[in-house]
Design goal:
The protein is of the alpha+beta class. It is 40% helix and 30% strand. Helix 4 packs antiparallel against helix 11.
């Protein structure tokens, strides 16, 4: 039996939706979860009407606008808004609510893709939409195993960068969970992001007025960090020089996956390869403290990530148009 949920009910019982996310094959488990979709909706889709349903074998988290249902993830389309064992019970309600249903964040050809196609095809015209690509590094064999699969030049460049950073007094300080003591208060997140903002203002992103210098992006990531802290899943590293933060990297853990979210560094330290060194440090930290994590999601496709990535993870959008 399907029933509607208010946004408050959905948020209060977010664990129920996340269990369906974890059980759905062929989607992005981190970005489809509520740690991601509720902050992205609150930041960029707050004025849009939520369409939330809980069924016997699936759950749906959509927004409704102008006769179209689409997922909460308006910015990137990483999240799959329809999750579970069997989407068939959602077909009629979705197509009654809107003439077009967009289901992004599905791996083409995966079991979930086929279940969606089989469910919607008898009742709608189907089309394949936007493709998004991410790079994944694997930690099979630990950090040594990862490095062994990189080129000799890559490894030598990292060693050179480590020596240079050490010579200039750079150290790496972790603030996992929330605050250096692992606390969970909002004040810890606010303090952490005040430090992040200070680094960002001195970075090339800050100079270009991009990245977390954007008020909206900062709101999005702070909101997400609070949710991650609440389940002990925030992972954050600062690079420091003479006691001053000169770089940061943060992300979140979900099951066997670490999702890198943002990193940046002081423009005056550009010669120190802090982005690469913080990433390597985080891999070592994951191997030591989160041994269940075997995959490091580097996020959206960018040139530098191809040096680190070993797997391409692509998802597409399935569009169902009422016949």
């Amino acid at each position: 039996m399907m029933h509607a949920l208010t946004l408050e009910q959905f948020d209060d019982d977010d664990a129920a939706f996340n269990r369906w996310v974890d059980a759905t094959p062929g989607i992005d488990p981190f970005c489809s979860g509520t740690d991601w979709v509720l902050p992205v909706r609150a930041t960029w889709g707050e004025e849009l009407e939520p369409w939330l349903r809980a069924g016997d074998a699936a759950r749906g988290a959509f927004l409704l606008y102008d006769d179209t249902l689409f997922g909460f993830d308006l910015m990137w389309g990483f999240a799959c808004p329809l999750v579970g064992d069997d989407p068939a019970e959602f077909v009629a309600p979705c197509l009654e609510a809107a003439g077009t249903v967009l289901v992004p964040g599905v791996v083409f050809g995966s079991p979930w893709w086929h279940r969606l196609v089989d469910a919607f095809a008898p009742h709608a015209r189907l089309a394949q939409g936007q493709t998004t690509r991410r790079w994944i590094a694997t930690l099979d064999g630990g950090v040594d195993g990862f490095l062994a699969r990189r080129t000799a030049k890559f490894r030598e460049n990292l060693r050179r960068a480590q020596r240079r950073a050490a010579d200039e007094g750079v150290i790496f300080v972790d603030a996992d969970g929330g605050g250096n003591d692992g606390g969970r208060a909002d004040a810890d997140v606010e303090a952490l992001f005040a430090r992040v903002a200070a680094v960002e203002r001195r970075s090339w992103k800050g100079e270009a007025d991009t990245g977390l210098s954007s008020r909206e992006l900062m709101r999005f990531y702070e909101d997400m960090a609070r949710r991650l802290v609440a389940r002990g899943a925030l992972r954050m590293t600062f690079a420091q020089q003479d006691g001053v933060d000169v770089g940061y990297l943060f992300g979140g853990v979900r099951g066997p996956l670490f999702r890198g979210l943002q990193k940046s560094y002081d423009a005056a330290c550009a010669h120190l390869s802090l982005g690469h060194l913080m990433q390597l440090h985080r891999m070592h930290k994951l191997a030591a403290d989160d041994p269940e994590v075997t995959r490091y999601d580097l996020g959206m496709d960018m040139d530098y990530k191809r040096q680190w990535g070993e797997e391409v993870f692509e998802t597409v959008t399935l569009a169902a148009i009422r016949s």
